[in-house]
Amino acid sequence: MARYTGPVCRQCRRAGVRLYLKGERCFAPKCEMEKRAYAPGEHTQTHARRRVSAYGLQLAEKQKLRRIYGVLERQFRRYFAEAERRPGITGETLLQLLERRLDNAVYRLGLATSRRAARQLVTHGHVAVNDKPVDIPSYLIRTNDTVSIAEKSRTMAPLVQTVEKAGSRRLPVWLQTEGDAMRGRVLSLPTRAEIDTQVQEELVVEFYSR
Fold this sequence. Notes:
The chain has 2 domains: 8-98 and 197-208, Ribosomal Protein S4 Delta 41, Chain A, domain 1 (Orthogonal Bundle), CATH 1.10.1050; 101-189, RNA-binding S4 domain (Structural Genomics Hypothetical 15.5 Kd Protein In mrcA-pckA Intergenic Region, Chain A, Roll), CATH 3.10.290. It contains 9 helices and 5 strands; from the N terminus they run H-H-H-H-H-H-H-E-E-E-H-E-E-H. The protein has helices spanning 8-15, 32-35, 54-69, 73-85, 90-99, 102-108, 115-123, 157-165, 201-208; strands spanning 127-129, 132-133, 146-149, 175-178, 180-186. A 5-stranded antiparallel β-sheet has the order 2-1-3-5-4. It is globular, with a radius of gyration of 18 Å.
């Protein structure tokens, strides 16, 4: 399955909630969820919605979580299999693995306006972990790791503007900025209470446990 390259606002409309896939635009009046908060399609407004089955609810929740973090289906299955192997609650472990992705950490630190933009920063070589360049968005960060913008990229105008705008964004308690706004440290691995992703992870577990 190839990565989705269509209008990302359709994914929010399909899920029925904001997935914050377009960064600052998702908070502006121009957001599609402000104008068309209904599922995409020609007859979605004129036809009454059918009752959704338990399977449909589980599938929708799985798709929502996968799209929030920008993960393809095969990779998402691997995350779930890894979460099942580890001790603890599978759904919470799955969320923790997704939060530990490098592109998500870059987004959470305010170095990018969205996870998609963060993934682009990583793949283009603008991000370093422990002062070593890492260009793999799925790289899993660990406690005491430092995540920073590479020295050669710190003067990029779009990046500087993004960091300035991110000053008002609330930083997760498991992360902290260190030294300057373009460098952060992982204080601990996130717990479920520290992850603000609005998803019912138990439905995702039920989907894969059928």
